[in-house]
Amino acid sequence: MKLVGPTPSSSIRSYLRLNTPDIFVREKRGVYRLMGKSADASCRQRELPETRNWEVPFTYGNATLLHEDCFNWIAGREDNSLHAVITDPPYGLHEYSPDQQTKLRNGKGGVWRIPPSYDGHKRSPLPRFTTLTREQLDELFAFFYVWGKALLPKLVPGAHAVVASNPLVSYIVSSALSDAGFERRGEIVRLTMTMRGGDRPKGAHDEFRGVSVMPRSMWEPWVVARKPVEGRVQDNLRKWKTGGFRRPSDDKPFGDVIESSPTGKAERTMATHPSLKPQAFMRRLVHAALPLGEGVILDPFSGAGSTLAAAEAVGYKSIGIEKDSYYFGVAKEAIPKLAKYRPREKS
């Protein structure tokens, strides 16, 4: 674990399970071995992640999209070279594991909730975080802790990491990043109706018609963390161009509540990703992330490329990392379209 330094053993075990399932096999709690009869046989039979065939980087304007594993890329990145992170990550990678993705694309089963259509409009699927076990929640913490420890030195002092989450697990993300060395700076609320919650007890709708098992979610938290500044904020701004958020205008501060519509059909047609966020929201977030409008924004879990498209639309440099070859292909097609898209929602 040279990359992240001293790390809890539970985090190392969880990292192995989450990021190298085709190399390591979990025999029992805390015990792992290389896939195959022996280490040599495993290496001969299976391609290591570092040696797999990655596609050629894609560039569009000031945006660069890389088909790589973000942990490997971060390890090779120069220290103090990134100015902000805006990302909507896979939560412990559980919902983006091959079996869960297969269930999602088949339209039933697994952690993904496939909501019904209303008025002829098909709603995007959502992960059901209420189904996660205690062990999976511990793995989620470990994932963000290891990720945060690796990322921290690559950010300039005062750089913000803004991470999409949900009300059920945002506290885990925030705690993991804090333990990794980030300062907790609150949450940004995306004020929008989702399909989470509000349901009657499963299998007992008629018996308990006046009961909702949990509140219908009408907001989405984005965890805000910051690498500690050097000295005062004004000193940090002068040296590193970071430490705060860019105001929408001189007389209006950047606020932590942003009204947002669900992602519309036009954008979902451009970018087929289950967690696609609307450009109207993403552009406000991205614009605020560089307080002086200078620097590089990273999205290490790019998905369909909405962060890079938003950065391009507001004139920022950006780098995106996407490991999944399918979504890398989606993003290459989607980024130019999303960047040119003109949202109807007020900004």
UniProtKB/TrEMBL annotation:
UniProt organism field: Halomonas ventosae
UniProt keyword annotation of Phosphoprotein present: no
EC numbers, comma separated: 2.1.1.-
Entry superkingdom: Bacteria
Cleavable signal peptide: none
GO biological process: methylation
UniProt family annotation: Belongs to the N(4)/N(6)-methyltransferase family.
UniProt keyword terms in alphabetical order: Methyltransferase, Transferase
Official protein name in the record: Methyltransferase
Record-level Gene Ontology MF annotations: DNA binding; N-methyltransferase activity
Keyword Transferase: yes
InterPro entries: DNA_methylase_N4/N6, DNA_methylase_N6_adenine_CS, RM_Methyltransferase, SAM-dependent_MTases_sf
Pfam families, alphabetized: N6_N4_Mtase
SUPFAM superfamilies according to UniProt: S-adenosyl-L-methionine-dependent methyltransferases
Enzyme class: transferase
Domain DNA methylase N-4/N-6: 83-333
